[in-house]
Amino acid sequence: MTAPPVDRFDEMRRAWIAAHQGYSTIQRRRAELLGRRIRARQRAIATAVPDPHDDTVIPPLWLRAAKSPASQVELLAVTVIAFVVPLGWIGGRLLEAVVTQLIPNRLRAFPIAALLWSGALLGLLIVLIYHPAPTFGQVVLTPWLCLQLAAVPSVAGVYGLAEGWLAVPGSNQWWPLTPPKQPLTAEDAATILGGYDITGPALLDVRRLNDG
User: Fold this and answer.
1) How many CB atoms lie within 10 A of CB 33?
2) Nearest Cα to 159, choosing from 81, 104, 55?
3) Which of 25, 53, 73, 111 lies deepest, with the highest CB count within 10 Å?
4) What one-character-per-residue DSSP string does 47-86 give?
5) How far is residue 198's CA from residue 53's CA, in Å, rounded to a whole number?
6) Taking the CB of residue 138, how many other CB atoms lie within 10 A of it?
């Protein structure tokens, strides 16, 4: 048997995505994937397992029949982004995966604010220091590459929003580090578990004489 997937606040994120997905089939698929992961974890630890028929997930965007207006709008938006910032999209996806692996051991939430502000500041810095020369590479290629660089943290932050990390407290902070674990002292253990009673059991149960 394979080990159950790591719980990275899946239930909270799934509920948030389901409540905010609207007409987006992309977000519906994300909620279904998180639900499948939650049920797989429940089957590994519980006897009364969820219905496996609930694990059906709609196919990815490029395999769906874009018949509804919502699907057509999503397909158009994804196509435009893929043509405008392909390298930034790939880099942002990889950055999002790396940051997610740090939760909950190093980070207690997804740093959405840090990533989005980093992308905005990086884009502003590129605009301020960029002075193109009258060549094709400086006029077209250099701005395109700079756009890919600024898109990496921005795409990672948008993925954090899409994955429902706003439901986890601390995701709107700059860098939500996980507090270090404090050592458990003997006094703390006594407070939690109670004092250690060294009195042994009596030979005879004590009972009042006037009891029936």
Assistant:
1) 17
2) 81
3) 111
4) SSPPPGGGG--PPPGGGS---SHHHHHHHHHHHHHHHHSH
5) 54
6) 13
Would you list the DSSP string of 91-145?
HHHHHHHHHHHTTTTTBSS--HHHHHHHHHHHHHHHHHH----SSHIIIIIHHHH
- Going from the first residue of the chain to its last (212 residues), give the mean pLDDT of each consecutive group of 10, the final group possibly shorter: 75 93 90 89 72 74 78 89 93 95 90 93 86 70 88 94 92 84 75 69 67 60
Helices 25-45, 69-84: axis angle to 10 degrees equals 90
- pLDDT the model gives residue 183: 79
Share of the chain above pLDDT 90, in %: 38
